[in-house]
Amino acid sequence: MCGGFTCSKNALIALNILYVVVASILISVAVYGQASSLVTNLPIVGGILACGVFLILISLLGLAGAVKHHQVMLFFYMVILFLLFLVQFSVACACLAVNSDQQEMLAQQGWNKVNMDVKEQVQERFQCCGFQSRIMPPNTTADYPSCTLVDRICCKNMDISPECQCQPCMEKLKETIDYAFKLCGGIGLFFSFTELFAVWLARRYRNQPDPNYKEPHAIFPRSNYLY
């Protein structure tokens, strides 16, 4: 019967297998991005890799606890997963609540921290120049890449006079940044509720008695009985 011991056990095993698959995808994406140099920002790669490894460890703990019906494993699995739910739910809500001004501020900080190669890749990819303006602000220490190449690309694609210039990158990146925040927030919110469901399922399964468990009985010889 669904809702019984066997159903709860199988559901918890299936949910943790799903987490293992998702964690494997995260690890594969991080390794591929680092190997192919698609992502040159190492903290991003390290963050994705750390999330994948942490999720797969929790999933293996949940799998072991579900298969063995181990009370201690299931207890720590519930506690760690609930803490992860709180963190992920908070981050997801923060991503969904970020307005355009905050997105621009975060993007500006990221632009100032990345190296020149990343800025040139962004300019060529989105056909833009500079972040908010083509003019370099006074008393700034940030590196500003050349816009000669991207200006030629923009003018060729726009098919106008040679005096044309590319727009600042923030104008081109607004929709992309907003979509990225909404996508991350939506996915994080969805998986956070699956983690809350896993906590409830683990608690339910932990409190259910195993029908195949046989209680030990001490057997004494009849000579030891008192009559």
TrEMBL record:
Locations listed in the record: Membrane
Membrane protein topology class: Multi-pass membrane protein
Highest taxon in the source lineage: Eukaryota
Keywords annotated in UniProt: Membrane, Transmembrane, Transmembrane helix
Any one cellular-component term (Gene Ontology): membrane
Protein name, per record: Tetraspanin 31
Keyword Hydrolase annotated: no
Organism: Euphydryas editha (Edith's checkerspot)
Residue intervals passing through the bilayer: 12-32, 44-67, 74-99, 179-202
Pfam families: Tetraspanin (PF00335)
